Here is the input.
Amino acid sequence: MRCLLARFRVLVPAAVVASFSVLALNPFVARADEFVDRVNAPYSRISDAKRSDLVVLPLLAKMAAVPGGLQDGGMLEDAALLTHEQAAFAEAAAWAQAPEQKAVLEALARVTEDDDPETRMVFAQPYGVEGAAPELVEVGMYTDLGDPPLLAAAKFGYLDGLEAVGLLAFVEAQRLVGEGKPGEAMEVLLDLIAFGRQLTDRAFVKERALGEMMMFIGFVSIRDIAYRDSKASTHALTSDGIRAVIRRLDDRRATVGLERMLIPTGDQVALEQLLNRIYTSSGAADPESFATTLSSLSAAERPLRLFSEAARWDQVRAVAAPAEETRRALSRMYSDWVRRWSLQVSDPLLSSPTDFSKVVQGRPNMAVLELAAPAERLFATRKNLMTEAAGTRMSLAMYGQFLKQGSYPLALTAVRPSFIQTIDVDPYIPSRSIRFFVPVRDTKGPQGTAQPLEMRVFPRKPLKPFSITLRDDVFVMYSIGPDEDDGHAQNITQSDSGGDYLLWPPMLSLLRQSLIDQGELE
Here is the structure.
């Protein structure tokens, strides 16, 4: 099941989508080795009382199947566009309120209740069968490494279930909005963000990517709920309630803490172990194991390609660099990534080619190391998350200010200190804050006359571009985006191809309304 990823693909930046893939489960007994021990070492220090995996995973196997309307090819075009007003929602709401799913939602709230970075719960299940509880192994909620254990072949049996948790939280939030409880809906999404943040601390990119997806969905959906409340004739949200939400999203003290995220290195250890498997003691590519091992990895999700992959890797073996040269390249590659990770986003080194792109990418002699390619995209996804987090805090603060005084202030700084202590900078250009203005009031034509904002929105394909006119009944908040060119929110793409990164009105909200206007969504 890839419903959560597939349903949000039209909203999530490409780097986030590209970095996530779920492997099928195929469990059998394995024994640990030194590489597995290295990856598992941090989790051995976590007490059972602080392990969120021990709370959540036993409940995943008991969840009812996701309703057909929420799965690929179902009656909903995109679950991200789901609201309580749609006919298909009744089935989704009933599923979310069934006892098995309610137990998961309660667990999600419990494992994210402590938002102190030093004491909060941790998703700390070790990798492999030896460290997993027998009852979880029985239902496939563990990481199968095979026998003998190979980290590069890890099959994360719990990722499908966790993906369903993300969809469940989204549906429950929409259900609560339908009951006139947008504040409670935001609490569910805040729990999802906090749990996703736990997954971003895991050792492997696949797990990190799902955690980032959960956080992204949480940020987007919270803004969407606030925006829909702002357009309602009677506002159910309050300034005090919004202040409490912002407090949980405080990047400097609460669980979000994106600046505390580290680049995962489990994939590096996996490659070190893999090189030991596919090279002989003399340092040459092993004719017995090189092609067979690598083809089984690259064809894991497409078994019909096993023979063609075996032939390809056999050709690579003929030109593969010696073991020591490959190990040095692996070490340099990760050292470069780790060094860059600690830099400020404005550091010029981040604009220079990485060691991966210079030494590994597209070079047949280093083809083995291209298995680490998803780590290269983490820099883009981190910046997207930073933008989403900052934009959500500042958008909520501005809407809270509106609820408090009945109008939008002239400057973003007016929300401080009542709603937020520090004005967030634009992650794409830290020397400036997130952009804010009110159309008509703050936009002038050629002769200095006030005019509305004509915004052109280019969502991810296959959805069609559309235009919208914004007036002074709404504020606009945006980041200059990956192209680092301020287009004054006239063109919205949220991609590297140009255009600004819209935060308010939320792109999700505008896209939903556009599809309704076009008759493509009920």
User: Anything to note?
Assistant: The radius of gyration is 24 Å. Residues 378-405 form the longest helix (28 residues). The longest strand covers residues 429-433. Residues 20-32, 72-77 have pLDDT under 50 and may be disordered.
